[in-house]
TrEMBL record:
<feature type="coiled-coil region">
    <location>
        <begin position="557"/>
        <end position="594"/>
    </location>
</feature>
<dbReference type="Pfam" id="PF02463">
    <property type="entry name" value="SMC_N"/>
</dbReference>
<keyword id="KW-0175">Coiled coil</keyword>
<feature type="coiled-coil region">
    <location>
        <begin position="390"/>
        <end position="479"/>
    </location>
</feature>
<feature type="coiled-coil region">
    <location>
        <begin position="264"/>
        <end position="333"/>
    </location>
</feature>
<protein>
    <recommendedName>
        <fullName>RecF/RecN/SMC N-terminal domain-containing protein</fullName>
    </recommendedName>
</protein>
<dbReference type="InterPro" id="IPR003395">
    <property type="entry name" value="RecF/RecN/SMC_N"/>
</dbReference>
<dbReference type="InterPro" id="IPR027417">
    <property type="entry name" value="P-loop_NTPase"/>
</dbReference>
<feature type="domain" description="RecF/RecN/SMC N-terminal">
    <location>
        <begin position="2"/>
        <end position="734"/>
    </location>
</feature>
């Protein structure tokens, strides 16, 4: 088993995460550096994580001062954490892991946490784990100059801690301390139980009288209960029998009422149907009346339209006849004009007549005038009666042609007007036929009046039927009310019986916690109801005389007897446990004394050998004072350097005293090796010759323990396998640098 690494973060001057690794083959590790750089803080961190809580031993005013307090360039931290990692392949630590990490963490608020392999635990668990391994918080595995002085102290009891750790009796002392606490608790429990025994004995005397009275009370109460239950059972059976008869009568009346209600419901449904039909007839009559009025208005409108269409038709027929006559006249005129045109074909020849040009011009002007007059007359709608016979003149022919065209155009206009009149006549003829059809249909619809008369008669019949049904329903309702009265009377009687049963049930439930179902299953019976009532009354009177009664006295009396028996058994057990604890403490003292004496004998022998190596030709011995038992005796150390007499340690020089204390520590390590030994400047008081002896001793013991030494001595540094330097590149912050000398050679 060996220490693998030391990990710090936020502890004192180690602000940053710092890890120092220790190899198994590097048996001696030196930690060097100038004064004030923080070397000893590594040892303080080791002692702190191993369970040290004494702020003086950690060189701080309060435990919160171990947290990095900050510098001018780096702010303070709120937490400090230190971890020791051990190789446990040898199984020296009683835990099933080949590597064990012990970690302690504290916060500025004062809260601390402890871990074993990253599992949260208690400080006690860490101390139990390290018990008798040589690595406790006050063991010889971490040695400072102050502890060297305590070994050299004139007070023998101050030396005991390291010797007891080497003897391995701390476990006995721990068990004895635990046994002493248990013994004190057992003594206190014996005193308390004796007081309880007296108290319970007095209580039993009082409870015995109360229990006798309670038993009599319960016996009478039981008899009253059985009689009362039997009486209630008989009363309930009578009520149930009467109730059965009333229920049968009520069921019969309900059946009659059901038949009557069905008949009444049937009549009611029929009445509702009649009323619905009556309402529908009224609606139909209203609709027929509205329809008849609408038909009358329609017929009147059709008649007016027909008369208007007939007047138009006769007017158009008359106009058409007039156009036919006018067309005949035009035909005669056209025929006459055509004849005149034929006669004017020879013309009028004025060529050989004197002044023919003058006549021709006059004729042309007259022709123009005739045409103008003819056009004017035609425009005014008058018949053209102007006729100018100029003989065979061309203008006359033109005039005839013009008149013929005008008559033809007028004839064409007459034909167009006849066509329009013919179309209008056809339209009015169709309209008259349509109106005639509508009048016929409307007259046919006058049959709705007859239908309305039929509906009125049907409505009167329904009104009579409704009246008859209403009278019948009123009679049925009256009969139903009478039957319901009888039904209600029976229901009230049944309700009273049910109320009596409920009253009995509630009383039984309240007084005896018995339900009606449980009542039937109980075997209690009574013969006479009157005698049962008298017995119940007499029993209750006796119960009132006995009251007040402590019914719990019987149970309390039995419990008190059981408690007294239990107390007596506990008293016996405690007395036995007390004797066992005393025997255990005696055995632990004997075993611890044996181990301590055996260790002291070995330490004395080894110390003598070690001292003779450090002080050539010298002698030394360790003994116990005889005025006290071995476990309380002072440890006396005497030495005799070569050529001198026996001297106590305080009479030696400073270097001799330090070397003697170192011899004692190495002797303890030889008897009970620790996995590692942390030495803090224990060689400071040694001269060169003694340093050489000291370093030779370190080499000898490095084979069985891992040596970590804080030193300023170059000879001590020379034997180290690894050297770690601690420096302060930045004021107030420690930094670790390493050198492996085995690789440097």
């Amino acid at each position: 088993m060996f220490l693998k690494s030391l990990i710090l973060r936020g502890f004192k001057t180690f602000a940053d995460l710092t890890e120092i690794e220790f190899q198994e083959d590097a048996r001696i590790t030196a930690i060097v550096g100038p004064n004030g750089c923080g070397k000893s803080n590594l040892m303080d961190a080791t002692r702190w994580v191993l369970g040290e809580d004494n702020s003086r031993e950690l060189r701080v005013a309060t435990l919160s001062d171990i947290i990095f307090a900050g510098t001018a360039t780096k702010r303070s931290l709120s937490m400090a954490e230190v971890t020791l990692v051990f190789d446990n392949t040898s199984g020296k630590l009683p835990i099933a892991f080949s590597e064990v990490g012990i970690k302690r963490r504290t916060f500025r608020e004062g809260e601390s946490e402890f871990f074993i392999n990253k599992n949260l635990c208690r400080l006690k668990d860490i101390r139990d784990l390290l018990l008798d391994t040589g690595m406790g918080e006050a063991s010889y595995s971490v040695i400072t100059q102050g502890q060297v002085d305590s070994i050299l102290s004139s007070k023998g009891e101050e030396r005991r801690a390291v010797f007891e750790e080497a003897a391995g009796i701390n476990k006995y002392k721990y068990r004895k301390s635990s046994a002493e606490k248990k013994l004190i608790a057992a003594e206190q429990n014996i005193l308390r139980i004796n007081d309880l025994k007296i108290e319970v004995g007095e209580q039993i005397i009082t409870l015995e009288d109360q229990a006798g009275k309670a038993r009599e009370y319960l016996d009478i109460q039981t008899r009253v209960k059985e009689t009362d239950i039997g009486l209630s059972k008989k009363l309930v059976n009578g009520i149930l029998e009467k109730r059965g008869q009333l229920s049968a009568d009520l069921e019969k009346i309900k059946q009659e009422n059901s038949v009557k209600r069905e008949a009444e419901q049937k009549d009611t449904n029929e009445l509702a149907a009649f009323k619905e039909k009556h309402r529908n007839l009224e609606i139909e009559l209203d609709e027929l009346l509205i329809k008849l009025e609408a038909d009358k208005d329609g017929l009147r409108d059709i008649e007016l339209d027909r008369r208007f269409a007939e007047g138009e038709f006769r007017r158009e027929e008359k106009t058409l006849i007039e156009l036919d006559n006018k067309k005949k006249d035009l035909a005669e005129k056209i025929s006459g004009l055509k004849h005149s045109l034929e006669q004017s074909r020879t013309g009028l020849d004025l060529a050989n007549i004197p002044h023919s040009d003058f006549f021709n011009q006059m004729i042309e002007q007259i022709s123009h005038l005739v045409r103008a007059l003819s056009g004017l007359i035609t425009f005014l709608g008058k018949e053209n009666t102007i006729s100018l016979n100029l003989g065979g003149s061309e203008d006359k022919r033109e005039t005839l042609k013009l008149k013929l065209e005008m008559l033809a155009e007028e004839n064409s206009k007459i034909d167009e007007e006849k066509e329009k009149l013919t179309f209008a006549l056809q339209a009015h003829r169709a309209q008259l036929e349509n109106l005639s059809t509508k009048m016929t249909e409307t007259k046919d619809k006058q049959t709705s009046f007859t239908l309305m008369q039929i509906k009125k008669k049907e409505k009167e019949d329904l009104s009579q039927n409704i009246f008859t049904l209403e009278e019948k329903i009123r009679a049925e309702e009256k009969a139903e009310r009478e039957t319901l009265g009888r039904e209600t009377t029976l229901e009230i009687a049944l309700a009273k019986l049910d109320g009596e049963i409920v009253g009995i049930s509630e009383r039984l439930s309240l007084e005896y916690n018995i339900s009606m179902e449980e009542l039937e299953a109980l075997p209690y019976e009574v013969g006479s109801i009157a005698k049962a009532k008298m017995d119940v009354a007499a029993g209750r009177a006796r119960l009132r005389d006995l009251e007040p009664v402590n019914l719990l006295a019987i149970e309390e009396f039995e419990k008190a007897k059981e408690r007294l028996s239990f107390i007596e058994a506990q008293l016996i057990d405690l007395n036995s446990a007390r004797e066992n604890l005393r025997s255990l403490m005696a055995e632990l003292d004997i075993k611890a004394e044996q181990d301590f004496l055996q260790t002291m004998e070995q330490v004395s022998q080894v110390f003598s050998e070690t001292f003779s190596k450090l002080f050539v030709g010298g002698e030394a011995r360790i003994s116990l004072s005889t005025d006290k038992p071995a476990l309380e005796a002072e440890i006396e150390i005497s030495v005799r350097p070569a050529g001198r007499k026996w001297l106590p340690l305080p009479l030696l020089s400073g270097g001799e005293r330090s070397l003697s204390a170192i011899a004692i520590l190495f002797s303890l390590l030889k008897i009970r090796p620790s996995p590692f030994c942390f030495l803090d400047e224990v060689d400071a008081a040694l001269d060169d010759a003694n340093v050489n002896r000291f370093t030779e001793m370190l080499k000898d013991f490095s084979g069985q323990s891992q040596i970590i030494v804080i030193t300023h001595n170059k000879r001590t540094m020379a034997i180290a396998d690894n050297i770690y330097g601690v420096t302060m590149e930045e004021p107030g912050i420690s930094k670790v640098i390493s050198m492996k000398l085995a690789q440097a050679v």
